[in-house]
Write a structure and sequence with these properties.
- This protein is mainly alpha-helical.
- The chain has one domain.
- Helices cover 51% and strands 0% of the residues.
- It contains 6 helices and no strands.
- It has helices at residues 6-11, 29-35, 40-50, 57-62, 64-77, 81-84.
- Helix 3 packs antiparallel against helix 5 (64-77).
- The longest helix is centred in the C-terminal third of the chain and has 14 residues, at 64-77.
Length: 95
């Protein structure tokens, strides 16, 4: 499957441009998670919860704790709601 990030959709020729809505650069996974000014508040919330690990892609996508934080971030942004629905509902909170 393809994540509804513009860079991915351009690569499979679903849309003509990967330009992010923030109009600063292409919307890549890295830009979405770490740089896009549109999600500054949501990113700040994640950084408050997990500190410097919020800037570590290997942590965010390669550990259970990081994946939970990534899902919280994605849910807070609402950016992928059309593709995945409310991801908050799929986050395992017990352990």
């Amino acid at each position: 499957g393809v994540v509804d990030i513009k860079y991915c959709r351009v690569r499979i020729r679903k849309i003509p441009s990967a330009k992010c809505e923030c109009d600063t650069t292409e919307e890549t996974v890295h830009h979405f998670l770490f740089d896009c000014p549109l999600y500054r508040r949501e990113r700040w919330k994640m950084e408050r919860r997990i500190g410097r690990d919020a800037k570590d892609l290997k942590y965010l996508l390669g550990t259970k704790e990081g994946m939970v934080e990534t899902l919280l971030f994605v849910g807070d942004t609402g950016r992928l709601h059309r593709q995945f629905g409310d991801v908050h509902l799929s986050i395992p909170m017990d352990d």
